[in-house]
Amino acid sequence: MKKMDVLLAALVLAVSLPAYAQERTFTDSLGRSVTLPQKVEKVAVSGPLAQMVVFPLAADELVGIAEEWNATAALYLSERYYNMPVLGQLYGGKGEMNLEELLLAAPDVVIDVGEPKDGMAQELDALCEQTGIPFVHIDASTQTMGDTYRLLGELLSLPEAAETLASYCDRIYAMAVELMEKVGENRVTALYLTGTEGLNVIARGSYHSEVIDLMTENLAVVDSPSSKGTGNETDMEQLLLWNPEVILFSPDSVYETAGSDALWLGLDAIASGRYYLVPFGPYNWLGFPPSVQRYLGILWLGDLLYPEYTDYDLYESVHEYYELFYRCDLTREQFDALVGR
What we know:
Elements: H1 3-16, E1 23-27, E2 33-37, E3 43-45, H2 48-58, H3 79-82, H4 99-105, E4 109-114, H5 120-131, E5 135-139, H6 145-156, H7 159-183, E6 189-194, E7 200-201, H8 210-215, E8 217-218, E9 232-233, H9 236-242, E10 246-249, H10 255-258, H11 268-271, E11 275-277, H12 294-305, H13 314-326, H14 332-339
Parallel strand pairs: 3-4, 4-5, 6-8, 6-10, 10-11
Antiparallel strand pairs: 1-2, 6-7, 7-9
């Protein structure tokens, strides 16, 4: 048979194959078997956490984003990425997912990443049936983000690119564990405060506290740690009882005024000047959402709190992250603006 005849025969066979022969089955972190195209080419995400995880692996496959990037994204991302259509999000947040817009965007799959929720399998199954679009969930935590990327690499048929990101996550987390073993009993006591009045706290043991719990002695022990990024409400009396060595303030809090406020000066961390504003750009380095950018928080806290134990250059390490995860060549000036306070 001539070469041209072989090619034509293969093309006819591919076109005539039943749909199931051009599909594959993927098992997500909930144990759900989902039918997908052999090659996923169009991707949507369920929320900003997933958006941040999926972006470095499949930015060009995204048909839209769950939430508008913060205005600072213009400093780090190519314009074509931060001007994509906003499709909304499944869980919480500012805008519920618009299923009509999602259907128009026609993704091959919608990816949810993060902490599994009660009833999630049933919810995603219902959405699959309602829209005809596969929805998958992939677990993620600071400790397991490397495996998250490996599973995403399988899902998106991008194993090599996924392994590059996975290896970075594994390396930074292992470095943090080794660092804290060296620090031992010298780990600092700390609180991470949020809210415009600084009176919400990220409690120990919550999904949002993973980095704080890893890198410090988080004094915020409460009966029911909040699952929300805003944390648990508290008051100045309780803060004074905890009285940590270090206070970390989220962006848009009372960081600017705490050092001149008599009440806040009653805290040793404020009086001694050991209070810091968490870097932000294009997202909070310690969370909100609690996504892959928390590796930046690990690097920052290691350098900030334990410089005598660290052997990495913070700028070089942060530059590597921005290059891998934002496709950005971070300048020294940009870095200084991020960590300056």
